[in-house]
Amino acid sequence: MDEKEKEALEKVKAAQKQATDEATKGFKAQLDNADEKIKAAETRADEAEKKAKELEKNQDEMQKHLDQLDVELQGTKTRRTSDEDFLAKALKEAEENGDLKKAMDTKSNSTVIAKMEIKAVASPMTVGSVGGNADLIVSREVDGGINRPNAPQRNVLNNANVRATTAATIEWVNRENSEGNAEFLGEGELKPLRSFEYSQEESKAKKVAVAFKVTTESLQDISILADEIRQDGIEAVEDEVNDKLLNGDGTIATEPKGLIVQAAAFNVVGLTVANPNNYDAIVAASLQVSMLRHTPNIAFVNSIDFTNLALTKGSDGHYIMPLFATKDGERIQIAEIRVVKSDEIEVGSVLVGDMRKFHVRPYGPYTIEIGTENDDLRKNLRTIIVERRLHAYIKKHDKTAFVYDTFDNIKAAIVADEAAA
């Protein structure tokens, strides 16, 4: 073997020795690490065993206390029973010997085995005498929620053609004053002329609002007050809107013009109905709307008139409209007309129309603002404003889509002339 081979062999042996040493060191480190983990586990086990022994000791001591308490309670019960038995026995013997009666006699000097003293009966314990002003010890329960007054009906608003808008002014064009008609003609004849005009209408958003004055303390102390004010304010606004949509007379520029002032009175001529009733009056009013090329879909009547309609009977006693045929107890259907119970309408009157022609266009959402005015800041007061803006309008040619009149007027106009008959 030459020198180079020897040198190479030595290098190989050195490399093998180095690898063996490194492997041995790594294995030893792993063994040391495992040994430390085992020692740590043994330490935790010892601590757990120590705590378990302490808990067992505490449990034994608690059981001793409970056993002692039970013995004391049993002893008290035994003593009380013995005392009661002794007293009962003494009273029985005194009664048998006649000594009890003598002892109770105010003129007698006799005594009995058990001396008795008759005392005045103590005042009974009542909720008032025991509780006094300490309300916390008297059982109470809070029935959650707020009991609010019943809100008025909003049938006009709920049945109108409601659609939001982002415009403060809404404009539309009416075509009117049409003249001339088409005709059938012969060859070479002069064609007829026809003409019409346009007019423009507009609606400007109307504002409806309500304000509250409230202290900062009440807002802070009554957690639900802010939400109550918001809800009450919105309801107040909607109530006012619904009222003016029906009853607004149009004389105040800041208010919408209502349905009643824009609706026509009944004016159909030629109907002859024998002994007309309120059903006939509703059908007649809807006829007037239909004759003017509208499609009536609703009739509002007062709840009194609605109930009278539901209870109307024929001559033989049968119901014209049985109660079970009404829809949800709130509606009666007469052909295409839906009769809606609404106390917003006066008793004895009826409003018939095509509610799709009554446009209500809310302009933006409700606005709720909190601020100060005058000396509010010095008095810890806040002013809360709830408001909204909206349009409400009927276009010029659609005003004939509504009829408002009394049942009596309509029935008088359609009753058959018996003399003529």
Question: Mind sketching the topology for me?
Answer:
Elements (H helix, E strand, L loop, with lengths): L2 H95 L1 H6 L22 H5 L23 H5 L1 E2 L6 E11 L15 E10 L1 E10 H6 L3 H23 L11 H4 L15 H14 L6 E4 L1 H9 L19 E4 L2 E5 L7 E5 L5 E13 L9 E13 L8 E5 H8 L7
Helix pairs in contact: 8-10
What's the short story on this structure?
The chain is an alpha+beta fold.
Structural description of this entry:
It is found in: Virion. It holds the Pfam family Phage_capsid. This is Phage major capsid protein. It is a single chain. The protein has 421 residues and is α+β, with helices and mostly antiparallel strands. The protein has a domain at 155-414: Major capsid protein gp5 fold, CATH 3.30.2400.10. The protein has ten helices and eleven strands. It has a five-stranded mixed β-sheet with strand order 6-7-5-8-11. Strands 1-9-10-4 form a four-stranded mixed β-sheet. The relative contact order is 0.11.
Characteristic terms for this protein:
421 residues; alpha+beta; Major capsid protein gp5 fold; five-stranded mixed β-sheet; 10 helices; Phage_capsid-like_C; Phage major capsid protein
